[in-house]
Structure formats: structure tokens, C-alpha cells
Amino acid sequence: MSPNGGTDRPTAAELAAAVREFLEAEILPMLDDHRLRFRTLVAMNALSIVEREAPGPVERDYETARRIRAGDIHEDDLPRLKLEVAAKLVVASPKYLERYG
Fold it and tell me: Which of 8, 11, 28, 80 is most open to solvent, judged by the fewest CB atoms within 10 Å of its CB?
């Protein structure tokens, strides 16, 4: 299943990430105006919040949590959950990813 729930459309988080990455890689390096640079950084931060807060595959997360609480742990649960946590840390707090790894 694709990370966006099986559709070929990007999720809100994926769209926000694409715009944030574009601002970071293409626009920010060209800005000499301090005020515009600051505003771009604020916009990038807002996009990071959208990435973090955007709804994800809630139903699957709920089902996984229900199974684990019931003692039904699948072999792929831990590796998948570790990848999901790492992806969230990249958005929310990249410095913590070093500790997590």
C-alpha cells in the first residue's frame, strides 16, 4: 500500500513537504533581503507544522495499536513502526532522529 492510503494523489503532508523543500533548496539560498528570508523561514516552519499535523493513515494505526495491546504482534510491526517514527521525527525534530537511530 502506498503511504498516501492507496491513492495516486499526494497527501496534504506530501504537498506541504514538497513546497517546504522547494523553498529550502531553491528560494532560501537566493534571498539576500533579511526580512524576506525571515518570512520564508516562517513559512517553512508553518509547512512543517502542516506536515506533522496532517491526517495520516489513522485507521491502520488504530488497528495496529489494538492488536499490539491484545498481544497480537506481527513480525513486521516493529520495523514498520520504527520507520514511521523516524519519518515523524524528520518533520517534527530532526535532531532527535540521531538519538533514535
Answer: 8
